[in-house]
Amino acid sequence: MMTWTESAAAAVRKVVGRSPEAATGLRLMVSTGGCAGVVYRMGLEARAQDDDAVIDLGEAKVFVDPQSLPLLDGARVDFVDSGTASGFVFDNPNALNTCSCGKSFSAATC
């Protein structure tokens, strides 16, 4: 199970609410790439796929595919806005190693 801070949930709701398309949620997935092996990817989606896990954040949802779900299990997602930089921050217990920017990681199941 993933957890989302209120700050992260609010950021998802804001992005989905401003979408010019008919987005109802944010797709979160893990795919091969980045300097550590796998990378987090996000994008707006109109609806969940049949086999997606769906996390309800109120007026918006997060869709996670079955291949990414084990790599995100137990992760805590936050959103920070420091004035000089903003973005989602992942505290993922499945990440054995991370790159310096925190956008990619390696995991035992990769």
TrEMBL record:
Residues 2-103 form the Core domain. GO terms for biological process: iron-sulfur cluster assembly. InterPro entries: ATAP, ATAP_core_dom, FeS_cluster_insertion_CS, HesB-like_dom_sf. NCBIfam families: iron-sulfur cluster assembly accessory protein (TIGR00049). It comes from the Bacteria. GO terms for molecular function: 2 iron, 2 sulfur cluster binding; 4 iron, 4 sulfur cluster binding; iron ion binding. This is HesB/YadR/YfhF.
